[in-house]
């Protein structure tokens, strides 16, 4: 007999695991507050499966280009798409020399095309694309245009070797890397940081992983780096270092817990959040660790630059030559050998770059397997600017996270596709949309889903979503769209910093004509139940940050049992004392809310003679109970509780 009971319990356990993998568990830290379905997203299906997609958005226009296999789509951020020609996997789309420059694998013969978009898209020129596009889409590549120059990293050989970051085309000289500078690199991102007052000193930052030259068994096999080169670098003289970067320096980018020597070494993605003053530019870097956790670290460009200007050069003992290696000079061909020799042989900095915003720990550590990060800035109703991190998981969901001083608050999770991993992601900040590419389709996710928090002022405030605020029109977006621009809409009730709903009542006292804030979802049911039967009540979970309790007859309360997106109260066998009123209450911050209410009444004896309308929900398996699918599981729960009781007595 014992064996049977155990197997029942095991079965039950399995069912629970399967049911709860897609919904977070209440009471855990670092989970999304709300789970939103993707009904406010706009979906554009592709005609064919795409193994690789790439997005490009010109800085000045509200259009978006998508490159896939045999296709380049020009997409109006709101809806339309226009198809153009090509015959391969498009890897690079850049604006270059006043036209659209597109490169692809072209059947393992990388090729680039200049497209002109007048009446229809036309190829006006084509070029050899080795070093700009890889041979196959699974190989690493990267591209960037800076003032009409094209920078790229792509392998020079079919097997993926000779991967380098170069200046490849444009007005300035083509410049290459010295091959000993990096070991089996994977380039993740490159970014040009503009300096309005000091363009000669502008640098291009390159974020990558490479093989660790430290082969000791405890060392991580891979290491994350940031390197930088000067925009004005034209390489060395004819005699030494011709067409080679004279300003290349690299440093280790550290993310983790330095006190415990616990590091996240595998760089996954980088988003550079540019600022008016270059010193305020921030780098958001997403890492994974050898133990499969993910972390986000934030660095400031000013700190990165300072390290390159002050650190010793690894392995170099001599006096630091003048000009200091790595300094941007207008005539790099005239640099002295002493400077160039340090760059050539000691391009690595001795010091490490630590996260500057949160020095002792990452901003965020998680067990979610995040693969991509994008950061938007939004002005909330309190007129402060907030940073919003949009993190993509490997299972097709997007987490929208609010960056607070030293933590991340996960506002919501949106499931876009359960079919495949996210391939590419780009922010259309002015339109407040996130464009997400999958193998089968593309989604445009609305970053201001304020109607989801429209049930009450409290819900709008608890959402902690800086894109939204409570006004007389309900929960509405703080950014107002017009045809040409987005403008900030002042006012509205919100409390991003403290998440206290008391701001709602305070505002209510000021104006008298507010509607009653009874939530629409509240339903009170009178239910007839027989003595001795098992019974359950169910309550919808809205916020995974709230605690839910069941209150019986206004006093005894019990925590709820979570089953997916619902909270249950289980009664193994109805007794006389089990009847009466039950309320499911949610509490979050300073807000307590009645979610649902039941009135359990003893079932009259003559069941059949009662009009069916009064027997509202006796049959819990009936159609009107949308939790019907749960019933079998709930019966299992009830049974197992009973069995456990028997088991305990044995
Ligand atoms: C693209 O993906 C499909 C399905 O995953 C696969 O069958 C096909 O071989 C892939 N194509 C290439 C060129 O790798
Ligand atoms: C498009 O522009 C290109 C280059 O400016 C020109 O050669 C071509 O004739 C134009 N095509 C059309 C259809 O206007
Ligand atoms: C990390 O994930 C990989 C791939 O899913 C798996 O093979 C490996 O065992 C995991 N490592 C740990 C420490 O969980
Ligand atoms: C995380 O996602 C990446 C990309 O899809 C995948 O390669 C990796 O195996 C995943 N890691 C774990 C632990 O599942
Ligand atoms: C994705 O999820 C939806 C609803 O949750 C389901 O109907 C659909 O079958 C799922 N698709 C796949 C491929 O699993
Ligand atoms: C939000 O609620 C208000 C009433 O408070 C209503 O006028 C408005 O239409 C609602 N908005 C949405 C998007 O449902
Ligand atoms: C519960 O049932 C009792 C008795 O029928 C009734 O007096 C009471 O108003 C009901 N309460 C609710 C909330 O339906």
TrEMBL record:
Where is the protein localized? Membrane
- The segment(s) forming the Ig-like domain are 519-601
Q: Does the keyword Signal apply?
A: yes
Lineage: superkingdom: Eukaryota
May I have one GO cellular component term?
external side of plasma membrane
Q: Name one GO biological process term.
A: positive regulation of cell migration
What are the alphabetically sorted keywords of the record?
A: Disulfide bond, Glycoprotein, Membrane, Signal
Q: Which SUPFAM superfamilies match?
A: Plexin repeat, Sema domain
Where is the secretion signal located?
1-27
Q: Among its keywords, does the record have Zinc? A: no
Gene Ontology molecular function: any one: chemorepellent activity
**InterPro entries tied to this protein:** Ig-like_dom, Ig-like_fold, Plexin_repeat, PSI, Semap_dom, Semap_dom_sf, Semaphorin, WD40/YVTN_repeat-like_dom_sf
Primary localization: membrane
Family listed: Belongs to the semaphorin family.
Q: What is this protein called?
A: Semaphorin-7A
Give the source species: Merluccius polli (Benguela hake)
């Amino acid at each position: 007999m014992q064996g049977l009971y155990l197997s029942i319990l095991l079965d039950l356990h399995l069912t629970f695991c399967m049911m709860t993998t897609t919904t977070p568990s209440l009471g855990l830290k670092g989970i999304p507050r709300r789970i939103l379905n993707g009904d406010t997203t706009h979906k554009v299906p592709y005609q064919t499966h795409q193994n690789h997609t790439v997005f490009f958005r010109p800085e000045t226009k509200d259009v978006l280009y998508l490159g896939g296999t045999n296709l380049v789509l020009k997409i109006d951020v709101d809806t339309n798409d226009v198809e153009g020609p090509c015959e391969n996997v498009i890897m690079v789309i850049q604006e270059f020399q006043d036209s659209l420059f597109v490169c692809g694998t072209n059947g393992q013969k990388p090729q680039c095309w200049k497209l002109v978009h007048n009446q229809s898209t036309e190829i006006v020129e084509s070029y050899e694309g080795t070093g700009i596009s890889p041979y196959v889409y699974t190989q690493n590549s990267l591209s960037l245009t800076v003032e009409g120059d094209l920078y790229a990293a792509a392998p020079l050989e079919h097997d993926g070797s000779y991967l380098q970051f170069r200046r490849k085309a444009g007005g300035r000289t083509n410049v290459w890397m010295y091959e000993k500078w990096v070991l089996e690199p994977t380039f993740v991102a490159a970014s040009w940081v503009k300096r309005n007052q000091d363009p000669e000193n502008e640098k291009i930052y390159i974020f990558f992983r490479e093989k660790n030259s430290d082969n000791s068994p405890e060392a991580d096999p891979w290491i994350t780096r940031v390197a930088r080169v000067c925009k004005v670098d034209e390489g060395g003289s004819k005699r030494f270092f011709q067409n080679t970067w004279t300003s290349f320096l690299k440093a280790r980018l550290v993310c983790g817990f330095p006190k415990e020597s616990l590091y996240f070494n595998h760089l996954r993605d980088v988003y550079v959040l540019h600022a008016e003053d270059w010193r305020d530019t921030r780098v958001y870097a997403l890492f994974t660790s050898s133990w499969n956790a993910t972390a986000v670290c934030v660095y400031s460009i000013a700190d990165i630059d300072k390290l390159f200007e002050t650190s010793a050069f690894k392995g170099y003992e001599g006096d630091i030559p003048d000009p200091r290696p790595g300094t941007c000079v207008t005539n790099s061909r005239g640099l002295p050998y002493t400077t160039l020799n340090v760059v050539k042989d000691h391009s690595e900095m001795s010091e490490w770059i630590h996260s500057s915003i949160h020095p002792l720990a990452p901003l965020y550590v998680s067990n979610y397997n995040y693969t991509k990060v994008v950061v938007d800035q939004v002005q909330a109703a309190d007129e402060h600017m907030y940073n919003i991190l949009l993190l993509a998981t490997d299972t097709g969901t997007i987490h929208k996270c609010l960056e607070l001083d030293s933590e991340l608050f996960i506002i919501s999770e949106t499931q876009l596709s359960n079919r495949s991993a996210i391939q590419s992601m780009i922010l259309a900040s002015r339109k407040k949309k996130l464009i997400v590419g999958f193998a089968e389709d593309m989604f445009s996710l609305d970053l201001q889903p304020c109607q989801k928090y429209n049930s009450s002022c409290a819900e709008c405030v608890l959402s902690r979503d800086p894109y939204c605020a409570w006004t007389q029109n309900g929960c509405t977006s703080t950014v107002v769209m017009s045809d040409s621009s987005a403008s900030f809409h002042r006012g509205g009730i919100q409390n991003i910093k403290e998440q206290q709903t008391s701001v709602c009542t305070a505002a209510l006292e000021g104006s008298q004509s507010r509607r009653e804030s009874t939530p629409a979802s509240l339903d009170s049911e009178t239910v007839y139940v027989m003595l001795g039967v098992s019974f359950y009540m169910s309550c919808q979970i809205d916020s995974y940050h709230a605690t839910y309790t069941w209150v019986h007859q206004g006093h005894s309360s019990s925590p709820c049992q979570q089953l997916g997106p619902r909270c249950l109260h289980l009664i193994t066998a109805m007794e006389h004392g089990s009847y009466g009123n039950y309320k499911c209450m949610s509490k979050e911050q300073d807000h307590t809310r009645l979610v649902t209410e039941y009135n359990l009444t003893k079932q009259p004896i003559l069941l059949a003679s009662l009009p069916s309308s009064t027997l509202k929900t006796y049959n819990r398996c009936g159609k009107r109970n949308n939790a019907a699918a749960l019933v079998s599981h709930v019966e299992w729960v009830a049974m197992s509780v009973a069995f456990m009781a028997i088991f305990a007595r044995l």
